[in-house]
Amino acid sequence: MKILTCTTLYPNARQPRHGVFVEQRLRQLLAAGGVEARVVAPVPWFPWRHARFGRYAEYAAVPATETRHGIHIAHPRFASIPKVGMNLAPALLARAAVRALRAMQADGYDFDIIDAHYFYPDGVAAVMAGERLGRPVVVTARGTDINLFPRYAGARRRILWAAGRAAAVVTVCQALKDRLIELGVPAARITVLRNGVDRALFAPRDRVVERERLGLDGLTLLSVGNLIPLKGHDIAIRALAGIEDARLLIIGDGAERRSLGELAAALGVGERVRFVGPVPQAELPRYYSAADMLVLASAREGMANVLLEAMACGTPVVATAVGGTPEVVAAPAAGALMAERSPQALAAAVRDLQARYPDRAAVRRHTEAYGWEQTSRGQLELFRRVIASPVARQGEA
């Protein structure tokens, strides 16, 4: 089976953490055997690499092609137009993708199926490209693409069009499936394939050693994710006012780095907040193992990988009850859900979890049901069914 994964959410040499969850899923699928894969991961076109242009300069520095973990990746450029860009993005993305896909076919990689991730604009563009090339498309919904974009009429129409024309639709949690059904997508067209966790990589490290290495003592909270409003790092910082004996480590980078530092200083908790910056995937288990709790105060989520990663390392979590999070934090050993998305609720949930702190071995056991084997098996079965079905190739229900 030859798969072509198509998405803008994929790591590259300049942005190694960007869309790493899609890469993980693909790598696990390849490890299951019987599959070849290549990736088309378009990036916005930008002419200059100077650092003063921020993330746009990063786009300019992304190589045209690269190989990661043995997977060949093409990064065609597409026009990203400010203000009106989201309306035009599917067509512009599709144009770039078709060129890259045809180049791969000409190079001898005649793929059987397009595996698209993130419904808007990526999934819509992939369905457009699939119809141009006569290949079936499976679109995976991941979170904001379904929780946010359907609020806009134009995006909602295109999402529903793509869901109707795709050979199949996948969601990473039941909550996203329910949301798609609310939007009008037939339940029979949607398959839930949850994110998994690599329990060999994300495993407990020597807690004493890791805490000493990081210079930690006392109650330590950990917040992991891009430094953007969506992730709620500011809520975690504000919560420290109600958890006087706690310190907070923040892993990630992004546009809010300066403002979050200023917030911590203004609240008088600056000495208890440490901005670690971005951390390679292989190093994350050391931080998870050293922390007492992971906190995730997101406004929206599909199925957050950091929850499973932390729990696989034996660390319980405190999180907002959004998206697929309640499906993961579904047992006392997993941690606690916040009553609402506020600093006060986060502080209260931390205190609650502290009072009934679970055995860390039990926390890790909770992730036994979240290995990648079941997800990869489900993907293979779905892809084989789609490839074998002439009806599915036409995108009909």
What does the secondary structure layout of this molecule look like, with pairings?
Elements: E1 2-6, H1 20-31, E2 36-40, E3 43-44, H2 55-61, E4 65-68, E5 71-74, E6 77-78, H3 85-106, E7 113-117, H4 119-133, E8 137-141, H5 144-147, H6 153-165, E9 168-171, H7 174-183, E10 190-192, H8 207-214, E11 219-224, H9 233-239, E12 246-251, H10 257-266, E13 273-277, H11 284-290, E14 293-296, H12 305-312, E15 317-319, H13 325-328, E16 335-337, H14 343-355, H15 360-365, H16 372-388, H17 390-393
Helix pairs in contact: 3-4, 4-6, 8-11, 9-14
Individual helix count = 17
Calculate the terminal CA-CA distance, rounded to whole Å: 23 Å
CATH architecture of the largest domain: 3-Layer(aba) Sandwich
| Strand line-up of the largest beta sheet | 4-5-2-1-7-8-9-10
What is the rounded Rg? Answer: 21 Å
Q: Provide the low-confidence segments as ranges.
A: 392-397
Going by CATH, the homologous superfamily of the largest domain would be Glycogen Phosphorylase B
CATH class of the largest domain: Alpha Beta
Mean pLDDT, as a whole number? 93
Overall 3D geometry? globular
CATH fold description of the largest domain: Rossmann fold
Number of domains: 2
- Give me the count of strands: 16
Helix content: 40-55%
Instruction: Look at the helices and sheets and give the structural class.
Output: alpha/beta
Please indicate the percent range of residues in DSSP E strands (runs of 2 or more).
15-25%
The biggest beta sheet is recorded as: 8 strands, mixed
